Amino acid sequence: MTNTTERKFHNISIEDREMFAYNSYREKQQAELKRIMAQPEQPIKYCFEFLKGYIKESDDGMKKKCYDGIAKHSELLDYSEAHY
User: Fold this and answer.
1) Range of 21's domain?
2) Is the residue at 29 inside a domain?
3) Number of domains in the chain
4) Residue 28: inside a domain, yes or no?
5) For the segment 75-84, what is each residue's pLDDT rounded down to a tens digit?
6) For residue 70, how many C-alpha atoms fall within 13 Å in the half-sphere facing its CB?
7) Alpha-carbon distance 13 to 20, whole Å?
8) What span, in angstroms and rounded, lies between the C-alpha atoms of 41 and 36?
């Protein structure tokens, strides 16, 4: 009695396994970031956190970029339930 289906084993090096695991993790991370950034509240929150913690007082160019980003994403907010 012979087995007609032979099992084939694929030899993958440890480096390749690590690379595949890293790529999978990175893709999941990027998808999660894309999902989060689709909400307009998150970029606004990020801009305020950046302003609070990372910008020097004399860096007016970066402040302008942050305020412009806040204004751009504020237009996307849903104010339909703001009266509640």
Assistant:
1) 14-74
2) yes
3) 1
4) yes
5) 777 676 655 5
6) 13
7) 11
8) 9
